[in-house]
């Protein structure tokens, strides 16, 4: 059954299981079409005579191997297995009780521009989701969490009509921010934004932003002003799956 949870004021519905009794009546067949960093598969549901019950098969992209995907579909464990990736919302509170969020401004090659998001990354085989969240936060922002403040807010499918990818969402309270530890192909700047300003961004307002070092990274028109060796320049857009709704509650006790 669906479970409703809250992530920094966002209402999220997490589908925790599905009708496994119905699924078990059929055999799910996954045919591998392409095997690379991502896998392209064809999915079909077969009856006891091996005949498809669907009008057509479905194509899906997976991160896990095709064989593992087929096994999880057939035994009903896909929705309960470790997520493919994580997303963490790091925050801190000033002496007046105002909450601020550390966001990342990153050039995403497949989007062709700069994207606002919170630290995120793929889970590694030898790391838990929680360990991955701490690792990605440290690498992308240099941030360290207050002990015991990391909180999981659910796991969801990102684009269920296209891929089996599932993301787990976390939040955590920052105790300090140091230098970043980026990979060679990552271009990420950090900005500290109040919840009030995030709400303005969600409403389509353009804001001038500075990075942690005090340098301007976005002008008042939302244009990214950066001087990387790649000479990348574009308009920042808000990554939709991170901050897709207006904030409904700013009480830190509800995190």
Order of helices and strands: EEHEEEHEEEEHEEEEHEEE
| Average pLDDT, all residues | 78
Name the quaternary structure. Answer: single chain
Shape descriptor reads: elongated
How many DSSP H or I helices? 4
- Briefly, what CATH class of the largest domain? Alpha Beta
Helicity range: 10-25%
CATH architecture of the largest domain: Alpha-Beta Complex
How many DSSP E strands?
A: 16
Spans of at least 5 consecutive residues with low confidence: 1-18, 227-255
Percent strand equals 35-45%
By CATH's scheme, which homologous superfamily of the largest domain applies? Nucleoside Triphosphate Pyrophosphohydrolase
Q: Could you say what the CATH topology of the largest domain is called? A: Nucleoside Triphosphate Pyrophosphohydrolase
What is the CA-CA span between the terminal residues? 23 Å
CA-based gyration radius = 20 Å
- Domain count, please report it: 2
- Biggest sheet descriptor: 9 strands, mixed
User: Could you say which structural class the secondary elements and strand pairing correspond to?
Assistant: mainly beta
Write the layout of secondary structure elements.
Blueprint: E1 2-7, E2 10-15, H1 20-23, E3 27-35, E4 39-46, E5 58-62, H2 66-75, E6 85-93, E7 99-108, E8 113-117, E9 120-122, H3 129-141, E10 143-145, E11 151-157, E12 166-177, E13 188-194, H4 195-202, E14 209-210, E15 216-218, E16 237-238
Parallel strand pairs: 6-12, 8-16
Antiparallel strand pairs: 1-2, 3-4, 4-5, 6-7, 6-9, 7-8, 7-13, 10-12, 11-12, 14-15
């Amino acid at each position: 059954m669906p479970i409703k949870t809250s992530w920094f004021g966002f209402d999220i519905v997490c589908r925790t299981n599905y009708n496994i009794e119905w699924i078990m009546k059929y055999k799910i067949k996954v045919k591998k079409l392409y095997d690379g960093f991502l896998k392209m598969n064809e999915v079909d549901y077969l009856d006891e005579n091996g005949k498809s019950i669907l009008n057509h098969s479905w194509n899906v992209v997976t991160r896990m191997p095709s064989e593992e995907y087929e096994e999880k579909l057939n035994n009903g464990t896909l929705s309960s297995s470790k997520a493919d990736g994580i997303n963490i919302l790091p925050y801190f509170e000033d002496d007046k009780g105002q909450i601020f969020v550390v966001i990342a401004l990153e050039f995403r090659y497949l989007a062709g521009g700069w994207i606002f998001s919170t630290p995120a990354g793929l889970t590694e085989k030898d790391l838990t989701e929680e360990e991955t969240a701490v690792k990605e936060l440290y690498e992308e922002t240099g941030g360290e969490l207050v002990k015991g403040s990391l909180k999981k807010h659910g796991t969801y499918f990102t684009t269920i009509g296209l891929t089996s990818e599932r993301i787990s969402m976390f939040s955590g309270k920052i105790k300090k921010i140091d230098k970043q530890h980026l990979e060679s192909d990552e271009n990420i700047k950090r900005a500290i934004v109040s919840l009030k300003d995030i709400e303005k961004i969600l409403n389509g307002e353009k804001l001038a932003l500075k990075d942690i070092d005090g340098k301007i990274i976005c002008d008042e028109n939302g244009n990214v002003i950066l001087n990387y060796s790649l000479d990348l320049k574009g308009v920042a857009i808000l990554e939709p799956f991170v901050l897709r709704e207006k904030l409904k509650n700013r009480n830190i006790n509800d995190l």
